[in-house]
Please model this.
Amino acid sequence: MKIGIDCLSFFIPDLFLDIAELAVARDTDPAKFKIGIGQDQMAVQPLTQDIVTLGANAAKKIVTDADRALIDMVIVGTESGTDFSKASAVVIHELLDIQPFARSFEIKEACYGGTAALQLAKEYVANHPDRKVLVIASDIARYGLNSGGEVTQGAGAVAMLITKDPRVLVLADDSTFLTENVYDFWRPAYSEFPIVDGPLSNTTYIESFQKVWHRHSEVTGLTLSDYDALSFHIPYTKMGKKALLSVLDETDEATRERLLARYEESIRYSRRIGNLYTGSLYMGLISLLENSAALTGGSRIGLFSYGSGAVSEFFTGYLAEGFENHLFQSAHQELLENRRQVSISTYEELFIQKLPVHGESAVYEDPMRFSIQKVEGDIRYYRKTES
Ligand code: HMG
Model:
C-alpha cells in the first residue's frame, strides 16, 4: 500500500524583518547574514499568534469537510509548547472541527518532532488504511535580542495530511535514524531561550547527516546519483548546503549540479522566513516542489531531518503523478508578499511583549482566521473568523 503526504501547506506570521537591517543594527556586515548565514528576511511573530494559531491556520487550507470525519489523529510536533500538560493539538482539534473520536497530542524532540509525527502517522495509516492523520509542525524560533542565534530566528507552521494513495509524496519504508546524546542546543524548563553551542550544533548536524546518509546508502544500495533532489532541515539556509557539500565528492559532476540546483530551489521560502524548527524540513520540501520545474511524478527525493540533542533521520519520498495539481503556490506566494515589514524598533518591542500571566487578563484584535482573542483565568481563548 502507498502511504504518504496527500497535501501540505504552510502558514507564517504577517510581519517580517529585513535581515540587512538587523545586521546594521547589530553592527555586523550585512554580507555575513545574507551570504554567510544565507537569510534575507525573518518572520516576526505578533503576540496574538502562537503555535496553536499558526498550526490551525496552516491546516485550514488542507482539511476538507470530508477529511474532518476521517481524521483519527492530530499530532503537533513542536518545541515551543506553552503548557507542560495540555497539548496544543487538543485546541487545534477543536478549532478545526475534527470529529471527536480522535487522538490529539504533542510530540517533542527539538526540530525532529515533525518527522517523528509524520512517521507515526504513516504507521497508523498502514494499520487503518481508510483513515487519515493530520500532522502539524509548528514553532516560534527565538534566541533572544542581540544573541548569537538571533539571525537564525523565525516562526511558522507546516500542516500535512497523511493518507493512503497520497496525491503529493509517497513515503518509502527506508528510514535510517540515529540518536546521540549531545548538548548542542537545548532549552531547560526554566529558560525562555535555548542554550546553544553554535559551532557544535553545526558539526553535529553535518556529522549526523553523513552518518545517516552513509548507513542509508549501505542498507538500501541507493547512491546520491539515484536522487533527483535532497531536502534538508533548514535552521538557516547555509546549513543544509554545508552538509550537502560534505558528501558531494562521492558522486559525479551531473549529480553534483543537479542536487545543488534543487537545494537552491528548496531554500527560497526559508530565506524569507527563517527557522521554523519542526517545520523547517517540510518548508524546504514545499519550496522545492513549488519552485522546481525539474521534478516530475516518480522523482525520488531524499529528506534529512535533524533535531538537536540529537536525533536525525534520512528517508525517501517519491512524487505522485500529478503532484503539481495539489500544491498551494499562489496562496503561499500571497502569504509571503502580503506581509508587512517592521522596523528594528517595532521588532524589538514585539519581541519583549508577553501575554498575561496568572492573575492578569487581556483582550486582543487580530484579523487572522485563527488568533488569540483573550487571555483570562490562565486560559488562552482563540478567535475563529470566517475569513
Ligand atoms: P556566528 O558565530 O554568528 O557566525 O554563528 P560564524 O562566525 O560561524 O559565521 C557564519 C558564516 O558567515 C561563516 O561561513 C563565515 O565565514 C561567514 P562558513 O565558514 O560557516 O561557511 N561570514 C561572512 N560571509 C560573508 N561576508 C562576511 C562574513 N563574515 C562571516 N562579511 C551560528 C552562526 C549559525 C552558529 C549562530 O547563528 C547560531 O548559533 N545559530 C543557532 C544554532 C543553529 O542554527 N545551528 C544549526 C545546526 S543545529 C539545528 O539545525 C537544530 C536547530 O534547528 C534546533 C532544533 O533542532 O531544535 C537549531
In short: The longest strand covers residues 154-164. The pocket of 3-hydroxy-3-methylglutaryl-coenzyme A is lined by residues 29, 31-32, 35-37, 79, 110-111, 148-149, 151-152, 185, 196, 198, 201-202, 205, 233, 235-236, 238-239, 275, 277, 306-308 (CB under 6 Å). DSSP finds 13 helices and 18 strands in the chain. The CA atoms of residues 216 and 222 lie 8 Å apart.
